[in-house]
Amino acid sequence: MAHRGNFGSKLGIILATAGSAVGLGNVWRFPFMAGHNGGAAFIIIYFGCILLLGIPGMVSEFIIGRHSQANAARAYHHISGGRKLWRMVGYLGILTATIILGFYAVVAGWCLQYLYASLLGHLNGDANYVIDYFRSFSTHPLKPCLWAVAFLLITHTVVSRGVQKGIERASKLLMPLLMVLLVTIVIASCLLPGSQEGIEFLLKPDFSKVSSSVMLEALGQAFFSLSLGTACLCTYASYFKRDTNLLGSAMQIALLDTLIAILAGLMIFPAAFSVGVEPDSGPSLVFITLPNVFQLAFASIPALGYIIGVLFYALLVFAALTSTISMHEIGTAFFSEEFHLSRTKAVWVLTIICSLLAIGCSLSVGAGDKIALLGLPLLDFCDYITAQIMLPMGAFFTSLFVGWFVDQQLLHDEFTNNGTVSTRFFRIYQFAVRFVVPVCIALIFLHQFGIL
User: Fold this and answer.
1) CA 399 vs CA 54, 61, 413, 442: distances in Å
2) What is the pLDDT of residues 103-122, one digit of tens each?
């Protein structure tokens, strides 16, 4: 088995781990939820949920990974003293990440194709043309499959180069580029006539819209946004150096992830409101609504509209790539360490598995619409079972494991870096991971099934 490697710098740790959290959901889910659920009021509640659930959950996975210096399955096995039940939590995280990578690659492939199409000027047209364009492309029997596999091969290339030369180096390039692109589009969007209304829609607090349902939505968004339950944080933490401040890193990553989500809203709403378009959420926002919004908003300067469109899809590709890299590494570490494969072979194993799954998911919403499980297209089934069941289960059992099973002295030593980091927040963290985090995840689980 090859040397595992480590992240080479604190900046590399923050950018790589934040990159795993920053993804398409920051663009097509968070802004819509914030805007329609009280604007700044929702953002305040969301930030509270990050403190209650997100940061304690992140630190817990960091502790498991860094202490064990191993892939997720072996990490849980090691800390539990070989108990199979807890090892299964690690397996669950690896399986969850692999399934997510398979269907996420399909949507990431759409982004890559749209970047290509925007570069060639193929997205110019009226609203009906854009709708037909997306429908025609997404249901094509071959093109979406090829783009999904192409995206996985790009991810493969990065991960195959290792932790420092691949993941860390790519993160140091992609994350700053993502921020530059995002800020550029935000400035252009906020300078449009009538953009003020969109800014107020996102940032003006409206506490009258806050309800128990909105609070649960914020809790769920905090959970999903930070990649809890996928074994990603655990895997990346296994490459942390021993002097890494786990709590400080978690807080910085959460702040960066939240900042990008808010900037995404400032990119979308001012432009949408300036042309009188009410933005939706999900894929329709990115592949149907926003191409029209950018064309209309910059109609007086077509060249600027073209540039903004290209920059937007480049931004989406970078955001998706930082996520797929982290998900790929989870399985790569597992196959390398558990089956004693070289890194090169382990990367290929996961790429092939996820490529086959991606092709099935792509066909299930297009030419092969009979590819389904439990009455759902394969892509929708994979999305449902991971988001609704596997992610909450993984995070829930991790909180129970760390809060109630792991030796509390070990927990204290890892949290404080053997006493070299302040201990003043340890008791708060300990209480949160034992009581607050499991309750929060249970509430998310019940809310998703309509029980709350």
Assistant:
1) 12, 9, 18, 11
2) 999 999 999 999 999 999 88
